[in-house]
Structure formats: structure tokens, C-alpha cells
Amino acid sequence: MPYILNTPDDEQTMLKAIGAESIDELFSTIPAEARLPRALNIPAAMEEIELTQHVGALGRKNQAAGDHVCFLGGGAYDHFIPTVVDAVSSRSEFYTAYTPYQAEASQGSLQAFYEYQTLICQITGMDVANASLYEGGSAVAEAVLMAINVTDRKGNVVVPESLHPEYRQVLATYLANLGVQLVTIPTPGGYLDPAELKKAVGPETAAVVVQHPNFFGHLEEVEELVRITRAAGALYVASFDPISAGVIKRPGQYDADIAVAEGQCLGTPLGYGGPYLGIMACRNEYVRKIPGRLVGQTTDRNGKRCWTLTLQTREQHIRRDKATSNICTNQGLFALRAAVYLTALGPQGLKETAELCLQKAHYLADQLATIPGVSLKFNRPFFKEFAVKLPGDVPVMLKQLQTKGYFAGLHAGRWYPGLADTLTVAVTEKRTKAEMDGLVKAIKELVGK
Amino acid sequence: MNNTQSIELLFELSRPGRRTHRLPVCDVPVKPVSSLLPAGAVAEAPPPLPEVGEIDLIRHYNNLSTRNFSIDTNFYPLGSCTMKYNPKRHERFAANPAFAGVHPLQDEETTQGMLEMLWDMQNFLTEISGLPAISLQPAAGAHGELTALYVAAAYFRDKGMTSRRKVLVPDSAHGTNPASAVLAGFQTITVKSNAKGLVDLDDLKSKLDDSTAVFMITNPNTLGLFEGQIRQITDLVHQAGGLVYLDGANMNAILGITRPGDFGADMQHYNVHKTFTGPHGGGGPGSGPITVRDFLAPYLPTPLVKKVGDKFELDYNLPKSIGRVRSFFGNVGILFRGWAYIRTLGPDGLKKVSEHAVLNANYLLSRLKGNFDVPHGDRCMHEFVASAKGLRREKRISAMDIGKRLLDYGYHAPTVYFPLVVPEALMMEPTETESKQTLDAFADALIAIINEEPTFLHQAPHTMPISRPDEVKAAKEPILRWTA
To answer: In this structure, is the dihedral angle defined by the CA atoms of residues B125, B129, B131 and B136, taken in order, positive or negative?
Structure first.
């Protein structure tokens, strides 16, 4: 069988050295009544050729974004991944390394994570970043737990409906056992009305979480929202789109306390939702409350600059039940990919990518709005994603568009019963004019029927 | 490893005007940004990212990679981490655009192959654990623990047993256990180990009562010992009305040999990145599915994959579900690798994995027991814990010194100073993918090291790019980012 090297001869020699008659004897501490008296009921082994063929056959039962023109978003986007990202992350010295607890044997990963932390500070405009969390939804929850810890308030946490519905679900799960109330403000206009936030926050509010651009792709009035949050003494958690940082203000520039994001857009394949990358950055004063791993610069015994995991007294393996979080693993490999992605783009590349998304999304929105019965759902500024009102049964139309080769968008009614007529459409820098014109034509034909 | 080109930071390599990735000209009519976005929302300039050309970027990272130990270059006997070989075929499968290019919110009609693979994985993992219900959603082992504790809390709430607020954790447990328990709103109580390194039954009994919610146990435990009294333990917890949680970190020892569901566990998590060899990626991603008993199934996170006729669907219809613990389905790329591993090995191969993991650990133990204290006997499961307590007393050689010196010999250090119940712990888990020759060479190196000059060891490593970073300084005046 593959991957096991011991030959029957080795086995005998080893058993002899151990002083055991058989391998089975080594399991004698397992009581007989607990032993499985049969073989596991799973399929028989496959050699590489067979398994490769099987995987190929399964793959043919999928239709990937690359087989269609993809306008799906909702937190996962079909951005281009430069070849250098794959080239670096396929170095097995990176992907088969363990967590860099032994600094001397891990300077490569440690330096890469230190650089990642710096790059995240640069795109968030925040003081410090951790070496990553699981993904965008649990990053929101971790930010809120951190805010509860910092403010020592356990009354409530306020979010608008324009925050990703799945992120809100995650947050609700995390808060359910802590006695902290989750207050959700309706956003009928596709954005959080600052006046509504003002009514919702109070002296017991630990955090306000706002996604900007929001789930529909629209901008929020962040500066006003931050002022209101601050006046209530709560922390402002900004969930942002890293690509948007190429053109719109970054969380640190509008004075957020904690910035979190789904980092999938930074060089991670769509991959059916994971593994992705949870980004988190915060103000310096909260650094000892931040969850997850941190890499710090120091010097070695010969005075050489080097890197090591630091502030580990926050973490579960040291503090156990007093830790800031239970998190152990991070998303090291995807933090590496994000670092390579951001470096490959540089400031100009990120700006151009963001502007291409912005221009193309607006072109498509304008074209769609020319179709009779189709209009923008909300009259609000947007970045790369927007909400459109369609005449007709949206899920049925989506299926019809799928057969024509388009993943046209997400049915908002899936999460918002009041938005049964609404589609959210995401446009990345990969979409061409011809693809967008094709979608417009296909929708026109459907509507015209 | 000492190529100086790699020591510069990206930010120090940066030169204005350089770049790697270039973008095409915009093919739609371009409008002024000021006409599309409110002035107050627009940034004056893009973030100050480094500006680096392609060859510099590639050399930078390739050189950095040579400053790492990795499974593909070094033996990694890290206890509790199951650092086994990561088969190359998995990387090719995961990169297949028919899987890597699937958006998480696509119509289920377009993801049938993906859902079939995940359905298989649900079946494999429930069969291996002997617990019939499963969620693949948790992103890592600790996330699985947390999810299972949320499930337990939801169960007790639903049954009106809200006074069950205590989670019992052995003193040899992973730190994630108590940390997860607190995050799930429970109070933690520590249960002592006895002299043999096993759960002290009297101490457990004295701490069980009608406030007990969950007893979390790692079996085999972190000392590499199978809790032979596991049935008595689980019976005691059940009699007190509590649930038994199995920390599945050490599943590599028992695949196809015994099943947590058969020895009384009610819930468990897997570390797919350990047992089923998703690569560790320098610290992640992991994947931490949980399996539970039938009566806990209604509380699992959604969605689950179900099969209706010959079609696969996502099932969101669990009214008592705890909700989500993350966005989208789960760490599918790691689950896919685990699936491929299980398909490669089959039932006999999986059992052989555990047999040889245990054989290798016992062999290494037999090679070392004359030279190191091994406080918990001369037999183990997939790992064992040696102690440098005597060496420390007699020669002033610590576990840390030994670990650091091993790096010079080309071996990663064992897990040191864990579990906490063993002083100067050196926790070794060789895994099944190493050969007798590698284990012999490693044992020889360890034995050679403890006979080296203590003062020489105090300064080890001697051949690595750096030696003994000042961690006190790093924590006292944290420098967590580069600044100009």
C-alpha cells in the first residue's frame, strides 16, 4: 500500500526490538469489547490511475465558474489569480510546513506572515493585523468577541441587515450562549440609515458591525456610522472588501476600531467556499486582545534580525480557559497567497483592478437598466456588486440563464423574503464587454418573451 | 538557506514603478470615478503596497521557502500534530478547475460532483467514528470542538436542562478544550490524571453531578495512552446525565481498530489536516468536521448534504440547528484531499495506517527508553512522551536544548513542554509514513545529542539561519509590522 515504508522484514525486526509478538499486541490496552470486529464499511482502495479517472468523472458532474460567465458574488468572487500566486504556494517547503513554533526552522513562513501582517495593515489602514483567521464570517464573530472583551459590555451587538446574511448567522451562533443580544436593523433602502443606528445603540452596546461595500454591493455612510458608534462608547467593526481598498477609503481612514474581511478575493480559488482567509486588523491599543497568531520581529542570540510567534500568552495553548480565543490553526497557506497576490499587484495594480471592477459593474448596471422592466433596486452608490429588480420569477430566470452559459447572479430572496424580485450581480476585472453584452441580450430575450 | 537575498523584506526590495501583474485596458467606456462614487468615499491614493518585479518576487519567496523545515524536506516527529506525508496527487486533484472553480452559491444542479464527493466524505467519517450524524462545516479542530459544544448547549437548552453548565477537561488535554468550552458559555473544571497518566476515576467521580454538561476526553490521550477504562468513564458521565466529547486529534492511532461511537463518545471532531493528511500549510488551513449521535443530529449546523433519489442536495431544514459557524460549506479543499486519501487507502489501508503509526512509535520508544525517562511505560499508541527531567537535573540539558540541537541534525524538534503533566516533556509522534531507517537515524541523533557538551547545547542550533530568537524582547516591545 502507498505511503507506508516498513517491509515485512522491518516489521519483524521492529517487533523484536519492542519485545512484542505482533502488531496486534501493541493495541492490547484497547478493551476487547471496544474493538471493531469487522472491516470498516468504506469503498475498496484505488490506485492513482483509477482515482484520477474517478475524480475526473466527478468533476464532469460539476459546472465551474470557468465553464460559464460568472456574475456570482455574495462574499466569493471570480477575480483573476496571477500565476505567481500558484507558483509560490505550490512550493512544498511552504505547504508541508507546520505552524512555525520552532522559529529557527521556520524563518521562511514567519517572515512571510510578518510581511502579510504588514500588507494587511497597508490595505486596511489599521495599526496591527494578525496572521489570519478562518474566513470572513467567523472573523466578524471573533471581532465582536474581541469588542465585548475590550469594552467589557455584554448587553448587545448591533448589525444592519445589509451585513452578509451568513455572517449574521455565524454571529448569532457565537452569541447564543453568551447572553449577548444581537440587534438587527432592517435596511429597506439597501443601506444602514444612520438615524436608525442612532436609535439602536446604547450604553450596553459592545460593537456595531457594518459591511462596506455591503452585501448588496452598496456603500454605507461609514463616517457618520463611526461617529454614532463612538459616541455610544461601542467599537466599530468594519467588514470590508480588500479589492475595494484600491479605490475607496480604507477602514483605518474612516476611523474603524477593528477591520475584518473575507480574503478569498486575494488569490484564493472559489473552491466551493473554502478554505478561504479571514482577515483581521485593529488599533494598536487592542493588540493584547486580538485572537489568533501574531508574528513579531526580534533579534537572535547573535543580534540578527529575525521573526518569531509572539504575544502567545493570549493564546489557548498557554492560557487555556483564559485565552482571548480558542483558535489554534490559522489559514497560513492562504495568508501566503494573499501576500503574494498583493505584492504582485502593488499599489497601481490594486487600483487598476478596483477601477476595472468599478467601471465594468457600472457599465453592466447601466445596460441592464435599459431593459424594460429591469431597474436598479436601490438608488445608492456601489462598487463591484449591485442589486437589480427583475420582472418575473428570479430563480426560474436564473436557471434559464444558466442553460445559456451565464451564472447571472444571486437571488436575494434566498436570504431576504422582501427581495424576492431582486438579483445581486457581481462584476470582476475578468468580465469583458462582450460577456456583459451577452448577459444583457440574454436577459432581454427572457423578459421579451 | 543563508542566501542573503531572502533576508530583505518585500518592502525593502520595493522600487517605485516596478510591478509584477499588469491589467488590460478597460474595454467599456470609462467614466470619471467622481461621477460613480461620492467624493467622501474615495481614497486619495491606493494603499502603499510594495512595488516589486516578477523575478524579485519569485526569488524572494523561493529563498524564503528554503528557510523552512517541511515534511517534504525533513522528518517532523511533532507529537499531537500527525505530520505524515502529504501525497502529491491530492494537490493535483484539488487544483482541478472542475472543483477549484466552483462558486459556493451555485445552483445545486451544477455542483453534483462536488456534493457527491462531500456526501461520500460524510459517510466515510461517520463510519470511521461510529457516530451517525455529521457536519463538515467547522474550519479546524478547535472550531469543531466549539461547534460540538454549541450543539451540546443547544441540546441541554432544548431539553430544559439549562443548569448543566460545566465542562470537565483532563489536565493532559489540549489547550483548545478549555478555551472552546469558555467560548461556548460553559465553566471548565479540570480532572486530574493518575500516576499512570490516565484519567483519575475517583477525581472524575467527585466532579460529576447534575451540573455536568460535557466531559471532553482525548483518546488515545496526549501521553499516547489508550484510556483502558474508557467504558467505565463514559458510563459514569452518562449516568450523571452528561455527554462525552472525544477530541479526535489522535484518531491516527485507531482507524478501523476501535470507534469513538463504540466506546461511548457522543460527539467528536476530526482533524482532517492531520489524520487524513491535508497539508498543514505553515499553520493552516485545517478542517474539523464533527460527528455526533442521532439524538444530537437536530442541532448540527446547516447545510448538510443529503441524497434524494440519485441527486444530491443541500439540506437547510433543521429547525433546531445551532445555525452556522462559518460562511459557505466548509474547508472543502481540505475535505477533498481527505476524501482522496480515504479512497486511496480503503478499509484495509486505513487500518494499516494506524497499525504502522503505532508500530513506529513503539519502535522509536524502544530505541530511546534506555537513554531518556519515559514516565508512562514502555508501550504507547501512536505517540509517547519522554522527559528530560533527569537530564536537566544531572547535566542541565533541557527539552528545549535537545529540540533546538535536533534542528542542526536536520530533524524538526518534537513537541516540547506539552502535555503540561510531564516536566521537560518531549512528545514524539513519528507517524506511519516514516521508515525504520529514518527512525533509527533520528534515535541515534537524539542519543548523540544528550552526550554532547551542555554549554554547546545551550546555544544550539549552530547551523540554522538564526539561533534562539529573543522572545522576551519580541513580546515586551512588539514589532508586528514593517514601517518605513
So the answer is: negative
